[in-house]
Amino acid sequence: MRPVITYLGFLLTAIVATEAAAMTGTLDAVWSLDRVWPGSHALQNWTDAQDWQAQSEVDLGLQHNGFTVLAHISDNAVSLNELYYDLSWAGAEWSVGRKPQEWAYGYSQSALNWVDEDLMLMREQFFSFGSWQSWCYSLDDTAGCANRLSGWFNNADWQMMIDYRDYWRAGLAVQTLIGDGGLVYAELYSSETERYTKLTTIGPAIHIAETVEGAQRQMNLGAQWTFPFKLTLQTEVRWMQQGLNTNDWNTIHAQLDSANAALIGAAFAEPLTQQKWMVRFAQPWRDFNIENVSVYWPQANHSLFNRTQIGVDINATLSAEIVWEHHVKGSVLNDIGQGNRVAIQFQFTDGF
């Protein structure tokens, strides 16, 4: 009860402050129940099963004359996900503070979303064909400057990005419409220094999965089609130069059922493999939204994960959703005890 009172007190204080400052705001509150079943045929019980547990999260956003703050409140933490100020000056748009950007075209990939938790100063200049963004940032005692040029040509959107801090990284992407309901996109990413998982031999039949740094190249290709009856089908594939391949995962699987299994625990963090495939379909029907996403890692012993969610809009501010996640038998995530999961969620969204 005490955390609930704390949240209500925080929200009441924020709303009073909002009224006093003549701000506008948004409130997004989510309450959910989750349950996780034990993995079937687990080789290692690294992931505990979970009985029904309630969770609550609140996003409170305030805006006034170019100033924006977004606070995220969970059961055990409060954070400021956004805190920035926008202004127009010298024929350009300026932003200062923490302002996340969504630039990636992919559904499940985010290699081109370069601004997340950074504290930055960004300038955006608009042209007849698009815009040019330049920014300098600071994150985890690391500072750098970057540029992004984006625009459109006929039915295609494109963007080019380059960044320098202690090393160089660059991105190139394009997406274009096809016909009356088609869309294809391609994203390329290159970095002189990137963290990835590597399998290293330390003894006879003993290996360790460790996180190292090195040059990385990544490609993401995707396509989707929306039919006249609003069904959307989408597929996406990611390829990475560095990472765990088929031979690595054969070795990991052999060691998983041994006394040295803990040495390869780092291998089970995303990204699991150099290749990742996704298939998604989404179908709205009246007040319902139905979505199914299947993720396939061919190099990780042909692991397959499936998530199905059904949502319904109860009214203009309240919605409900049920989510079912399933790891197919033989999946490497199932091998460490990660079982099926179900979640029931209620979401309240409103402005004031």
Task: Explain the overall architecture.
This protein starts with a helix and ends with a strand. It has helices at residues 2-21, 246-256, 332-335, and strands at 24-38, 50-64, 67-73, 78-89, 92-98, 119-126, 130-139, 142-153, 156-164, 168-178, 182-203, 206-226, 232-240, 275-285, 288-297, 303-313, 318-327, 338-351. Strand 3 (67-73) and strand 4 form a beta hairpin. With 352 residues, it is mainly beta.
Topology:
Layout: H1 2-21, E1 24-38, E2 50-64, E3 67-73, E4 78-89, E5 92-98, E6 119-126, E7 130-139, E8 142-153, E9 156-164, E10 168-178, E11 182-203, E12 206-226, E13 232-240, H2 246-256, E14 275-285, E15 288-297, E16 303-313, E17 318-327, H3 332-335, E18 338-351
Antiparallel strand pairs: 1-2, 1-18, 2-3, 3-4, 4-5, 5-6, 6-7, 7-8, 8-9, 9-10, 10-11, 11-12, 12-13, 13-14, 14-15, 15-16, 16-17, 17-18
Structure at a glance:
It is built from three helices and 18 strands. With 352 residues, the chain is mainly beta. The N terminus is likely disordered.
Helix/strand/pairing category: mainly beta
The percent range for helix content is under 10%
pLDDT < 50 stretches? 1-9, 11-16
Main pleated sheet? 18 strands, antiparallel, barrel
Q: In DSSP terms, counting alpha (H) and pi (I) runs of 4 or more, how many helices?
A: 3
Count of individual beta strands:
18
Radius of gyration: 23 Å
Determine the mean pLDDT.
91
What sequence of helices (H) and strands (E) makes up the elements?
Answer: HEEEEEEEEEEEEEHEEEEHE
Name the overall outline: globular
Beta-strand fraction estimate: over 45%
Distance between the termini: 26 Å
